[in-house]
Structures are given as structure tokens and as C-alpha cells.
């Protein structure tokens, strides 16, 4: 048995879809399991014992010859089954061209004909894993007899990576006996970023109540924005922020996060990675992102999230999905930290030293 899983999206999606390999490996221990992803997402998959081969291709490439060569490579692999979680036209063509006997994806009118089996994205979750997990596992129905109700995404760090991160933190002045939080200060784009002044207010609250040490998750090109948030914090909080501790390498960032007591801030890939490392998370959702889809393993203690819809549900009957996304900044401005202050305090009290 040779199976290809396709997930040409961002880190959170790639990490979440990696659960399929654990389920497949359990039923097909000798199968060849391949994963097609964007190259920049590969770090979250390294050392995963259930994946045999990682393939890369960017379907945004416009040159027909590149795509044609890629399709030939896919066909030459002679897959028995293709699970297309991406479900876009490019991946649908690749699935069909593979000549796999079983081709599975989500039900979309414009790609339906490319697959032998298709499933609705709509699902009523049966576990606190949430729909993002359960709807992916449902794609395995045509080839698995026993589908688990849930599997938690996992990141596999080596002992060497963890030790290197620990030594780096110690050399930078981090005290291991004190609480250490990773802060997801910026979303993937402006419309997914909690207002800077509100985030600074949250950080002041955290330090005042825990005297925690704070690390900022950002890349060098985002440093000016990270500094703006730093400067909005009060002087006492600034002393607790290690603004210059960061890692460009994604594996190194994950290793640093593994030593933190929690990750707090904007929902996104960093939150998903922290969960996969068993690091508690407090996630602030963008107004335009449905919390019910991505609040995986929400339990009120180690995994907590907030969304303005929790406090102003009437806004989401007043506006369409498109209008909500267009009004992201306006809705974020309404989402004052005071709404979830008690929930945040309960979280940090439960996840501090």
C-alpha cells in the first residue's frame, strides 16, 4: 500500500493534517506514506515517525512545464490512494493524474469529478478535539476499517534540540525557576493581529500577577512592530520582556517554546505548535476566524481561547461572513481585554510556577 496525503496550506493546517499518518500507520504498518506540503512548513514534520517521505511543490508556480513535470513524478510513484486535504484545483488535478484507485477529498462542486470519494466539511464534533481534527479523520473512511475519533497533532523535537534551547535561554538570563511565557505578539497579517495597545495591557496584567518572564514570537522583519508593543507596556513589564531572544529557524523556535509554561496571544500557527508540544495555550481569535473550527482540545484550563463572538454574539447575526472579515479592525477595537480578564487570570494562575 502506497498513500499520498496532500496539504498545501500553512503551518497550522499541515501540522493538523499530520494526524492522518498516525492513523494510517496503525492499520497499515508496512505502507509507504508520503506527504505533499509547501517547503517552508516542513520543520513541523521533521522526525515524525509515521511519515516516510515529504514532497514539495508550489501550485502557485505559473509555468506549465513545472506543473507537468510534477504530475509525471506523482504518477510515477504509483500511489494506491491519495488523500487531498487541500482540495483546490491544482491538487485535484494531481490527485486525478496519479491514477490512484482511491482518491478522497472534501466535497466541492468544481473538483468533485476528480475524486472517487468526497465528504462534506460540515461536521458536528463528538470530542473536544474539535471539527478541524474530526473532519480530517473522516477522510480516511474509504481506506481504514477503524478510524479513531481523535488524534492529537504532535511535534517531535530531539533531545539535542531541547538541550540547545535550554542552554540558550540560560545564557540569555532566563531563570528556570520562574514562570516563562511565550507571547504570540503578531498574527499572520494585520487583520489577524490583536490591537497593540490591548496586547500591551494584557502583558501588564500578566506580569503584575505572576512576575513572569516573557519571550516575544516574531521574525526580524516584524521587529519594529514587536518593539511598538514593547514600548506600550509599562516599565515594570518591559523589565520582564526578553525582546532580543528569538529564533529565525522554526525548529529552534519550537524548542524554545517547549521550555515555556504557556503560550499566550494571537491565534495561529504558533498556538498550534505549542499545543503539539503539550504547552498550555491562551489564544485570542481574530473576528474573521471561526473559533469553533480551530479551538482544538479546548478544556478551560490548559487550552483556552477567546473570540469577540463569545461576548457580542449579536454582531455575527448582523453581519455576513465577508462583512465580518472586512470589519476586522472595527470588531477588534470592540474586543477590550476587560471582557476576558478573569478568564486570563484563571489561566495564568493555573499555568505558572
Automatic annotation (TrEMBL):
<dbReference type="InterPro" id="IPR002201">
    <property type="entry name" value="Glyco_trans_9"/>
</dbReference>
<dbReference type="GO" id="GO:0005829">
    <property type="term" value="C:cytosol"/>
</dbReference>
<protein>
    <submittedName>
        <fullName>Heptosyltransferase-2</fullName>
    </submittedName>
</protein>
<dbReference type="InterPro" id="IPR051199">
    <property type="entry name" value="LPS_LOS_Heptosyltrfase"/>
</dbReference>
<keyword id="KW-0808">Transferase</keyword>
<dbReference type="Pfam" id="PF01075">
    <property type="entry name" value="Glyco_transf_9"/>
</dbReference>
<keyword id="KW-0328">Glycosyltransferase</keyword>
<dbReference type="GO" id="GO:0008713">
    <property type="term" value="F:ADP-heptose-lipopolysaccharide heptosyltransferase activity"/>
</dbReference>
<dbReference type="GO" id="GO:0009244">
    <property type="term" value="P:lipopolysaccharide core region biosynthetic process"/>
</dbReference>
